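The material for today's practical consists of a large collection of protein records. An example says more than a description, so a record of this kind follows:
***
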Amino acid sequence: MRNLTLLTDFYELTMMYGYFRQGKTEEQATFDLFFRPFDESNFCIVAGVEQAVDYLLNLHFTEEDVEYLRSTKAFDEDFLRYLGDFRFTGSVRAMPEGTVVFPYEPIMIVTAPICQAQLVEAALLNIINHQTLIATKARRVCHAASPASVLEFGLRRAQGPDAAIYGARAAVIGGCSSTSNVLCAQMFGLPPKGTHAHSWVMSFPTELDAFIAYADTYPDNCLLLVDTYDTLGSGVPNAIKTFDYLKAKGYKPLGIRLDSGDLAYLSKQARKMLDEAGHADCKIFASSDIDEYVLQSLKQQGAKIDIYGVGTKLITSNNTPSLGGVYKLANLCVNGVDTPKMKISDNPVKMTNPGVKTVYRLFGRDTDKAIADVICLKGEVIEEGKPLTITDPLERWKSMELTNFYVKELYVDVISQGKRTLAPRSVYELQADCARSLDGFWDEYKRLSNPHRYKVDLSDKLYELKQKLIREERKTVVK
């Protein structure tokens, strides 16, 4: 694990220095990491928690780090000595990776001495924002492609090595079957996938020569790229000749790959040609600038595609290239006394929810489908045997009474007093968790366009606390 301690905005360090000089280092702060609403999706898929935990547990300033900070002339020697012994000793609760999460619900809740909790803001946002964004995009792409499977093919278009590696990891959590990224596959125990490029075909005297050579090299795994010259005029016919050659030798060819042109038309024509030639079991793989909207259109046109390779628009989350995740102070504990904190703004989107919190998800007993989430103050309990009224946090006249439901708390402890408390899980285990979390929602909430609005309520106690702090702040402003 790389030491990412200096992966932070400079103002985190200047605030740490201020806390140090003001004698506030022992104050216990609780920060919430959550995202605000955005147009691409009404919910997200949590990803990146494992890397966030690794980052926190590896926090330390090396001698070189301290010397660099000394060179900035922004800090005194007492503070630099304090950094020499710096470690993360706090606790973190988080939603498990693969969990469906809605705006304003904390993905991570960090409680630690204020200098520690403050320093980690930028890096945690970098890690969680990126992977959660890509896992969410992958969920949408895989949802649109179903029942076809999706491979992540974005390495060459990702914005740097880390984006490629961890983006591919997140894409598999979100539903992709694997990745072309070999380093990612090695790091996370995934099977790397890929065949050959146009350059392979162009390096031989003829297309057929290239196909036969590839078949001889990979007789058990022969999938041929057929659009180098003329997809239907030469590519598919030459692939059929190659498949006949393989079958005569006792091997079973995999299929063909389309990488350009009208994928709906070409796939239907290629399917017909393969079937008529006795290769009905050969798969058709397609790539070429695909996203969930292209996939929807291809499905509507009756495209005959079994597997998709999705690259640029997935690994960059093309339509929404960033997630509006934020990290806000929610509680300050001084000498054992908790003081809830909140950001107040004229813009309701910018306001935060105060206090140390938890989130409950309510499911119908007769359907096992999610009905609503309730953000509560920590320690609040929702009793399953009693009726519960759900109210819109902003439009308070909108409410509904729930009776026949059961409750699931969404958080697990991932770090306690600076020690890991959650064992790492494989990426495919997290993918299965994601599928289970998604299965808990009706299709109306998961559709790509105009999804039904899911209900996320504040408990009465949290709502009243929020209003109380707003009233108190207004009095202070008036004075």
